[in-house]
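Sanity check

After download, print the first record. It should look like this:
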Amino acid sequence: METSKNYTLITGATSGIGYELAKLFAEDGHNLILIARSLDDLEKVGAELSRYGVDVITISKDLFDRQAPLEIYDEIRLQDIAVNILVNDAGQGVYGEFIETDLQKELDIVQLNISACIALTKMFLRDMVLKGEGKILNLSSIAGKIPGPYQAVYHGTKAFVHFFSEAVRSEVKGSGVTITSLLPGATDTDFFNKAEMQASKIVQEGEMADPAEVAKDGYDALMAGKDMVISGFKNKMQVAMGNITPDSAITDKMGETQAPVDKKND
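Expected structure tokens:
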């Protein structure tokens, strides 16, 4: 596909880590394709980032819709645009005991966190491999390394994203394309509000990371071609301890951290 410009495509680009990543790319002169649901938010962020002198294309799509990734890809191909960096940032969680949470919300989370990531990665990765160059950053989480009571489905989706990224990275080794998995911990974004998780101990008593710092860790790792990066020293230690602690013990510990503040220990 012959094009005059390369673009970085970022999902979930209007807030949180996705927004901070978009700023870093714009500051370094990358043309951008920003994907989010809210057209108003996209127009606001697009106008802001255009001031860096880069081309910014905004596409309003709801990645809860199974067809949305295919529509995004087709729309970009029709504009004869090459995506040389893909950032799968969009993701949400559902909070509560699994037997009580809403099934449809959880299936929607699987669509957003897993299916959309698979679809976008497959379509753009094929083009990158044909060109012999490209980079993909997938937003996992330390949640993908530790089972998470009260967020059982979310932790499961992030485990998928991380191991999916590592597996496909191995398959395309030597192609000129790298895939990087970013694993932040609890970060000061709108995630906890959307997940209706304000009553949890991790929100009320925990220490949140700065999304700008998380984004910088991910950006640097992506550009260096690393396979993964755990953002934050405390999170690195938590994952390291999880690697040597029995699953049942580390799961119970995470359950205590994520439980509602008024829940009594059994």
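If your output differs, re-run the checksum step. Summary of this record's structure: The chain is about 50% helix and 15% strand.
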